[in-house]
UniProtKB/TrEMBL annotation:
Recorded GO MF terms: DNA binding; DNA-binding transcription factor activity
Domain of life from the UniProt record: Bacteria
Record keywords: DNA-binding, Transcription, Transcription regulation
Protein name: HTH marR-type domain-containing protein
Length: 165
């Protein structure tokens, strides 16, 4: 993949990278809104369904593991777990190997409703990706993966700018 080294100048109005960044943020916001609308019909908030999806995907995560996966504070995750527990979607169970640790487990209700969650997600995905070809989706995923890696992994020029060299 070729890397652009040309200068885009200091005029923010003429920098396609900035335009792309703003468009990406807007698309993300709209996509979250579409999922929120679907989940609202099930009676869950954005934060609740986000946590519940991770509980369903992970194998008995701890509150700390959920907080790290969701990139939110541990007390915030605790409050969401409380809400989901009160709604009957999750339960706290002691870890079999360490009695100090509590695992967050999906309940039978969550497992039963997982199909409804999946159908809601499928409706959103069908709408959003209706006119997108598989090859275009693959290219977009590759681009986003590269952007993520560039943000995660320090590069030599970034280390120099930060003074960590």
């Amino acid at each position: 993949m070729a890397v652009s080294t040309r200068s885009h100048g200091t005029d923010i109005k003429e920098d396609p990278r900035i335009d792309f960044s703003f468009l990406l943020g807007e698309v993300t916001r709209l996509l979250r809104g579409a999922f929120d609308h679907e989940m609202e019909a099930i009676g869950l908030t954005r934060s609740q369904w986000h946590v519940l999806v991770y509980v369903l995907k992970m194998d008995g995560p701890t509150q700390t593991a959920l907080a790290e996966a969701l990139d939110i504070a541990r007390p915030s995750v605790g409050a969401l777990i409380d809400q989901l527990e009160n709604s009957g979607y999750v339960s706290r169970e002691r870890d079999a190997h360490d009695r100090r640790v509590w695992r967050i487990m999906p309940t039978q209700l969550a497992s039963q409703r997982a199909e409804a969650f999946a159908q809601s997600a499928e409706r959103v995905a069908t709408q959003v990706f209706a006119s997108i070809e598989d090859r275009d989706l693959s290219a977009a995923m590759a681009l986003l993966s590269t952007l993520r890696e560039n943000l995660i992994s320090p590069t030599p020029d970034r280390l120099e700018k930060d003074g960590n060299c």
